[in-house]
Amino acid sequence: MKTFVGIDVAKAHVDLYDTITETHLQFENHSEGISRCTDYLLALDTELIVMESTGGYETMLAVALQSAKLPVAIINPRRARDFGRAVGRLAKTDRIDAMLLANYAATIKPPERPLGDRKSRQMKALVARRHQLLQMRSAEKNRLEHSHDKAIAQSVTAVIKIFDRELNKIEKQLQTIISASTELSQKVKALISVPGIAEITATMLVTEVPELGQLNRRQIAALIGVAPVNRDSGSFRGKRMTGGGRRRVRARLFMPTLVACHHNPVLKAFYQRLQEQGKSKMTALVAAMRKMLTILNTMLAKNELWTPKRT
Q1: CATH of the domain at 40
Q2: Same domain for 130 and 53?
Q3: pLDDT higher at 238 or 158
Q4: If DSSP states are collapsed to H, E and C, what string results for 41-63?
Q5: The pLDDT value given to residue 235
Q6: In whole angstroms, what is the distance from residue 221 CA to residue 228 CA?
Q7: How many whole angstroms separate alpha carbon 155 and alpha carbon 117?
Q8: Are 42 and 127 in a shared domain?
Q9: Within-domain flag for 129
């Protein structure tokens, strides 16, 4: 029989539970402990290993397991919580969470999602760091507008310059990684050929959405969370809503989509047509984002550049 494994990850240790032996084990979350955990799992006939995304604590273990060719799925913690409520598991400990994740693996069987190679993980970390720096720089710029004291204004200006230097370093590192990879260079070249998509947005997409170009249009829209979801019951017909998916990607696509709706001829016409039909600006913008993702997905799938004849 195949076994399903749940692993609850904490900063200092990981708790493991498998559905065949029904055994709880704990390993330290460092290289030696992860090595022992990997050896234990290699001895099992493992169908799937499920763990939650924990802000980075799971990365070292997930990389080790995937390097050992073990099937790993990293899920959103909210899915595990919802599953626990559905099966009546309200108590929470590390051991209970590991068992819950194993049952989730056996019941739901979420698809594996590879973390990518070292360069992909490095790019993802750099893109995330760039976003953090932009947020902090924006906060400092807002403070500068209200800094009436000369000394405070000088301090804020000095900090903004530090952020600018760090942003410049990160962008150079990203350019170096992309230039060294023919595949990444081709993808970025294709994406930035689309009016409204700048190089940093293209870099974010190839980093955060490696599935781009490999899924169909409905799957890619659902993955990012821009596919409308029905809310019907009996004779009631609720308003179609979007949500879920990769919220961080969706948030970072907002401004590029807004720019494209003004400068990309295809998306501009599409956006205006929806507004003429009575759609709100936000509804039209989300629809334009979905259309843009569909276009980008098709371009990468066919390995082609932007053409203004797209409809």
Answers
A1: 3.30.420.40
A2: no
A3: 158
A4: HHCCCEEEEEEECCCCCCHHHHH
A5: 57
A6: 9
A7: 40
A8: no
A9: yes
Residue 268 CB coordination number (10 Å) = 16
* pLDDT value for 229: 63
Angstrom distances, CA of residue 287 to CA of 18, 150, 284, 292: 43, 46, 5, 9
DSSP assignments along the chain, one per residue: --EEEEEEE-SSEEEEEETTT--EEEEESSHHHHHHHHHHHHTS-EEEEEEE--TTTTHHHHHHHHHTT--EEEE-HHHHHHHHHHTT-----HHHHHHHHHHHHHHH-PPP-----HHHHHHHHHHHHHHHHHHHHHHHHHHHHT--SHHHHHHHHHHHHHHHHHHHHHHHHHHHHHHT-HHHHHHHHHHHTSTT--HHHHHHHHHH-TTTTTS-HHHHHHHHT-S-B--EETTEEPPPB---S-HHHHHHTHHHHHHHHHH-HHHHHHHHHHHHTT--HHHHHHHHHHHHHHHHHHHHHHT----TT--
**57 and 131, same domain (yes or no):** no
pLDDT tens digits along 235-247 = 555 565 566 678 8
Q: How many residues does the chain have?
A: 311
Structural domain span for residue 163: 118-180
Full 3-state SS string of 106-126: HHHCCCCCCCCCHHHHHHHHH
Residue range 70-121, pLDDT digits in tens: 999 999 898 899 999 998 888 889 999 999 999 999 999 998 877 777 888 8
Can you give the pLDDT at residue 111? 87
